[in-house]
Amino acid sequence: MNEKQFNDFCKKLPATTYVKQWGESHVWKVGGKVFAIGGWEDGDSEEFAVTFKVSDMNFEILKERPGLRGAPYLASRGLKWIQHYGKPGLNDDGLKDCIKRSYEMIARALSKKKQLELGIRVGSE
Q1: Residue 71 DSSP one-character state
Q2: Is residue 124 part of a domain?
Q3: How far is CA 13 from the centre of its chain?
Q4: Max intra-chain CA distance, the chain
C-alpha cells in the first residue's frame, strides 16, 4: 500500500479527519482520536509505513511477523499499536482490514453521544 492508497482508504471511513503532524506523517482520526498513521517510521525501511491499533492478542501475534513490529514510541509505552514497515508484512487487503479494525476500536471507545454526533454506529464485539 502506498501513501495515496492509504489516504484514499482512510478518508472513505465514516466521520474521519486528516492532519499532517509528527514529521509530516499522515494522521487519521475519528472523533479526535488517532486510528491510523501513515509514513511515520524511524528510517530503516523504504516501504511506506502504516501504523494502527490492535487488540492485545493481535499485538502478540503480529509483532512477530516479518515486516511488522510494535510501533516505535507507542509500543514502548505499553500501547498496542503495530507498524507495517517492510516486506513481506501484510498484503493490501490484510492491511486495510487492520486499519478498519483500528478505526472500529477507536470509534467504539467514543461516548455514545459522540458517536451519535458524528453519525457513526459501531457494534460491540
Answers
A1: P
A2: no
A3: 12
A4: 42
- Which residue range(s) make up the domain with 44? 3-118
N residues, the chain = 125
Residue 8 within a domain:
yes
* Angle of the 92-109 helix axis to the 3-11 helix axis, nearest 10: 40
Number of domain units in the chain? 1
5, with CB counted inside 10 A (0-12, 13-18, 19+), is middle
Count of Cβ atoms closer than 10 Å to residue 93 Cβ:
9
The upper half-sphere exposure of residue 48, i.e. CA atoms within 13 Å in the direction of its Cβ, equals 16
The gap between the terminal CA atoms of the chain, to the nearest Å, is 27
pLDDT digits (tens, 9 = 90+) for 45-100: 567 999 999 999 999 999 999 999 999 888 778 889 999 998 999 999 999 999 99
Q: In this structure, is residue 123 part of a structural domain?
A: no
Q: How far apart are the C-alpha atoms of 68 and 113, rounded to whole Å?
A: 35
d(CA 48, CA 103): 19
The predicted-structure confidence for 103-114, as pLDDT tens digits, reads as follows 999 999 999 999
**Which residue type occupies 124?**
S
Q: What is the pTM of this model?
A: 0.90
